[in-house]
Amino acid sequence: MPKINKKTIKTYKTYPTLKTFKYENSDVFHFVLYVGYNVKFINDKKVVSGNFGHSLKTKNLREAENLAKQFYKDVFNKIENGEVLKTDFDFDKDIVEDYFNSRQRLYKMKTGSIKNMTKERNQYYNHLSQFFVNKNYNDVIEMNNAIRDAVSYLKNVDVKGGTKMRDTTITKYMNIISQVCQHGQKRGLMKAIPDIPTFARINEEVPPYFPKDLKVIRNRNDEHYHQTEDEIYNIVNEYTAFLQALKINRAGLNALNVKRSQFREITDYNSDVPIVEVKLFNTKNNPRVADVCEFWWVEQYWLKYRNKPIDEYIFAPEITNREQLYEKIRKTFVRVSAECNLYMLNGKRRPLTSIRHTNALKIYENTKSMDNVAEGINTSKNIVKSNYLNYSDEWARNRFKALGYDKSKDYQNTMKSKNKVKKK
Question: pLDDT tens digits for 41-85?
């Protein structure tokens, strides 16, 4: 098969999937466009791997462009008018798989990890795929009905703890469908995006752990280690201490995969301990962010990591499967927390991510400033207000003072005078 001259390839922004080019052994232009795997023939010409195209029989670039655009319009008009019929519609094969493949390439390029993409793919195929089998994805009404059926199903899915799936979680599934449909439209396969239901996203309250709680959990881990000599208990203690000491941290692979090269020691003649700065890369909110660790962590842990090889992981460098290691850390922490009767607080769960709420609360107690909390935990002020502090006791105390309470005033006498009924 002749090779394409890559220098002659041209794409068109307003004509998705359309390309014009020349072969190396030819002087005339050719075109190709994607029509989907289920179209077999167009104008008596065979569709190969979902692509249709042929020679434009002209050497002139401008003439070739106009001809290619006209072919594009003619082909899709025939498909829409039913002159070229799809033998079957396969939403997953035509659109979904290509969407996830492109997402996989994007994740690899940005972070090197495809964990989030794999999670989204599993969510789609486990719960959504069944509703789009043999659906005509160019029929908006048919797609809308399929999406409504999917939402009804999701509302009745049992999740952990015997509860039903929350609207916040269903919104994430609808976002996957929305992204897939937008991808299909960009590729010229879908004429319109169906109606995607929206839900009020009310984030579940996540109470913080208090320092005394984390101390109890670490002591229980020490007991388990002495009984079993299982190194996972030491790793959990070291990892949670690091989450607590570096406020910009959030539980996950980013914090677990820190290397010695990300740590920098700074000398301060006014301090008895060195200042240890840590840089994190590709966090949820910033490509690069840095902060210093608390002094107690420097005193208790830094000497252990100080002389590690520069390119070595700080935590459990001998374990190569980091995703599996994080899952084991997370599950061990939850199990030990439950053993200590600390996992549930006022009917709310406190997973490993609760340590980030602990950090937010501590900064707020010390500074009384939302801005300092936002900067300290590497997020926005609005997120701090909505997700981290609105349910804390400290926030309620300061809010009460802001409403005008002054302990020195005699409010009891004031209220009596206000409620006193005047005699006529």
Answer: 787 787 887 788 999 999 999 999 999 999 999 888 887 776 665
- CA–CA distance, 29 with 63 (Å, rounded to integer): 10
Q: Under a CB-based contact definition with an 8 Å cutoff, are residues 275 and 266 in contact?
A: yes
Comparison of pLDDT for 85 and 167, the residue scoring more = 167
Average pLDDT over residues 385-414: 61
Q: Which residues contact 9 (CB under 8 A, 6 or more apart)?
A: 19, 20, 21
Check whether residue 303 and residue 365 sit in a common domain: yes
Distance CA 254, CA 356 (A): 14
**Residue 25 has which token pair?**
């052994």
pLDDT in tens, 395-409: 566 666 666 656 666
Q: Do 351 and 228 share a structural domain?
A: yes
Which tokens hold the place of 271?
Answer: 């301090």
Residue numbers of the domain that contains 257: 211-401
Of the ranges 48-52, 101-105, 197-201, 237-241, which one carries the lowest mean pLDDT score? 197-201
| Residue 329 is assigned to a structural domain of this protein | yes
Q: How far apart are CA 123 and CA 173, in angstroms?
A: 7
Q: Specify whether 75 is located in the same domain as 167.
A: no
| Cα separation, 34 vs 188, whole angstroms | 8
Three-state SS annotation for 38-106: CCCEECCEECECCEEEEECCCCCHHHHHHHHHHHHHHHHHHHHHCCCCCCCCCHHHHHHHHHHHHHHHH
Q: Are residues 62 and 113 in the same domain?
A: no
Is 204 within the bounds of a domain?
no
